[in-house]
C-alpha cells in the first residue's frame, strides 16, 4: 500500500505502510533535527536486526479479550498509517500483534495491564498493539515498559461512539534502552480519550502520541511528565488532527531536567482543518531546568484552516526554579534542598495527581522522588 492519498498537512506531509516510501533520515529533516540518530542503534536505517529479547504480557479483567494475531487481521493498521521511517519499519517487522477488545457497553471491573520487559540491548525488537473500545464501553489501560531493549512499535487506540478510554503509559527503562514509539488514538462520535505519559528511563526515548477524529463531539486530553537526567534524550512529539466539527483537545506536558547533556524535546502540533468548525483546543508545555548543562527544546505549532473555532491556543515555557518560591519556604525554616524538592514535586505533582489508579500514581511519585534524590 503506497502513500496515503489524503495530505496530512504542511506539518505532516507523508503517511504510508510501505517502508520504501520513506528515505533514511539524515538529521536535516524537520522531523528528525532534534533526534541524535547515531544513538538509535539502526532503528531508523533498517540495520537493527530483529534479534532482541522482549517479552510482552497482557492482563485483562473479565469480559475483555486479548489475542495475538498476524498482520493480515483487518484490525491491524485500521486506525493508523505510519508517518515516518521508524514507524513503517516497526509496522513491517513485527511478527504478531496484540489486539485487546472491550465489548460494546462493557465497564470492566479493573484496569487492563500490558507489561513489556526487555532482556538486553544487543538486538532490536518490533511490536504492534491495538486496543479497541467498542461503542459506549469504558476502559482503563496501563502500559509498562521496563528492562533493557532496542524497541520500535506502534499502538492503535480505537475508541467507538460514546466510548471512553483512559491510558497510562510508563517508560521506566534501564539506562541503555532505546525506544521509538507511535501512539495513535482514533475517536469516533462523542468518544473520550485520556492519555497520561510518564517517561523516566532509557538512553533515548522518542514517543509520538497522536489523535484523529472520525465523528463530531470527540474529546481528547493528553498529559505527560518526564524527568531527564545527565546524558538522557527524552523526546515527545504530539499531533492532534482536528478534521471533524465540535471536537476538543487539551495537551499539558511538564518536564524537569538535571545534569550535563540532559536533553528534552517537546513538539506539539495541532491542525484544525476547514471542516472542523467549533474546535476547542489548547496545548501547554513547561520545563524546569535544574542544573547547568541541561537543555529543553519546546516547539508548539498551530495550523488553523477555518475561522470558525471555539478556542485555539498554545503556550511554552522553559526556565529555572523560582527563587521567590525557594526563599518563601526557607523563610519558614525549610532547608534549601528540601525547599527545592517541594517546589519540583509541586510542579510535576499537579499533573501526576490526575492519574486515577492509586498504585500507579504512588509509583510515579516515588520514581520522581528517587530522581530528585540523585
From TrEMBL:
Residue ranges constituting the SUF system FeS cluster assembly SufBD core domain according to the UniProt record: 120-347
The record, for SUPFAM superfamilies, names:
Stabilizer of iron transporter SufD (SSF101960)
Which Gene Ontology terms describe the biological processes this protein takes part in? iron-sulfur cluster assembly
Q: Name one Pfam family in it.
A: SUFBD_core
Similarity field: Belongs to the iron-sulfur cluster assembly SufBD family.
Protein name (Swiss-Prot/TrEMBL): Fe-S cluster assembly protein SufD
Name the gene that codes for it: sufD
